[in-house]
Write a structure and sequence with these properties.
CATH architecture of one domain in chain A: Orthogonal Bundle
CATH class of one domain in chain A: Mainly Alpha
Oligomer: homodimer
Shape of chain A: flat
Number of helices of chain A: 5
CATH topology of one domain in chain A: Multidrug-efflux Transporter Regulator, Chain: A, Domain 2
Structural class of chain A: mainly alpha
Strand content of chain A: under 5%
Largest interface: A-B, 53 and 52 residues
Number of strands of chain A: 2
Strand order of the largest sheet of chain A: 1-2
Radius of gyration of chain A: 20 Å
DNA sequence: CTGCACCCTGACAGCGCTGTTAAGGTCAAA
DNA sequence: TTTGACCTTAACAGCGCTGTCAGGGTGCAG
C-alpha cells in the first residue's frame, strides 16, 4: 500500500506519516522508485501510533512504547531502563487520566445545572465510551 | 499574594502565570506600583488551570471551561453555544481518556510479561533523535 | 543609602506538531 | 505520448507552550 491509502485507513495525514517515519517510528520499505510501500502490519502500527498520539503521548514516548505494543514478544532491550521508562510512562498516564476525569466530572456537573433551553430533560452526559 | 508565592503554591511557573493572564484566564488585580496581587480565589483558579492543563486542554478550551468550573452559579452566557462547547469538550475528553486507558492497558500488559531483572541482557537502545 | 530579593514588560528562542508550497519523479490509463 | 493522480524531498510557516534574558522598577532590611 502506498502512503495515501495508509493515510486514509489510519486517519493520519500524509504529512504526519512521513514525520513519524523521520522520527524513527514506522519504517515502511521502499519500491525501486522510492515510493513508500506499507505492509498490513505497518497499517496496524500506524493505527496504534494514532491512538497513542490521541492519548497525548509525544513521539519520543511513542518511540519507547511502540516496540512493546507492536508485538507480543518482548526481545532484546536493556531491561532495567526500559522497565523504568514504561513504569514512568504509565504513572504519567495515570496522572493525566485522573486529571482528565476530574475535569470531566466538573464540566459535566456544571452542564447538569446549566439554566438553558426550555428545560433540562435529557441530560445525556454520562457516556463513557468513544 | 504576589506571583512568586502563587507560583510556589500552584506549581505553575511565573512565566506561565503571566501567560495565562495574557490569554485572559486569571485576572489578579494590581497594587499601586503594578505588582500582581492574587487573592485566595485566584490561587484556587490557578490550581484548576493547572489541572486542566495537565489534562491536556488548550488555553482556548480552558477559557471556555473555566467560568463554569470556577463558580457554582452559571450566569449570562449564550447558552446554546456554551452547552455545545462543553459537550464537545467532554466528548473530546472521553475520547482521550479512552485512548489513554487503552494505551495504558497495553503497556501494563507488556510490562507484565517483560522477561527482565535476572535475565538476558543485550543490545543497545536505539535512542536516535532524528 | 545601599543591597538584595522580588516584581514588571518585552522580546527572542526553542520544542513539538502540523499544514502548505515548490520542484520534480513515477505510473497507469487514454 | 500525453495527462493527471500520486509519489518524492526540502523548506517555510504557524500555533501552542515554555524558558530565558535584558533592562528596569519596588520594597524592605540593614
Amino acid at each position: 500500500m502506498q502512503i495515501g491509502e495508509i493515510s486514509d485507513r489510519s486517519d493520519i495525514s500524509v504529512r504526519m506519516l512521513r514525520y513519524y517515519e523521520a522520527k524513527g517510528l514506522l519504517r515502511p520499505h521502499r519500491t525501486e522508485s522510492g515510493y513508500r510501500d506499507y505492509s498490513p502490519d505497518d497499517l496496524e502500527e500506524a493505527r496504534r501510533i494514532r491512538q497513542l498520539a490521541n492519548a497525548g503521548l509525544t513521539v519520543e514516548a511513542m518511540h519507547d512504547l511502540l516496540p512493546c505494543i507492536i508485538s507480543p514478544e518482548p526481545t532484546f532491550h536493556p531491561c532495567d531502563r526500559l522497565r523504568a521508562r514504561l513504569e514512568a510512562e504509565i504513572a504519567k498516564l495515570d496522572r493525566k487520566i485522573s486529571d482528565m476525569e476530574r475535569s470531566r466530572a466538573q464540566i459535566a456537573a456544571y452542564l447538569e445545572g446549566l439554566p438553558c433551553e426550555g428545560r433540562r430533560d435529557s441530560a445525556i452526559l454520562s457516556s463513557e465510551t468513544a
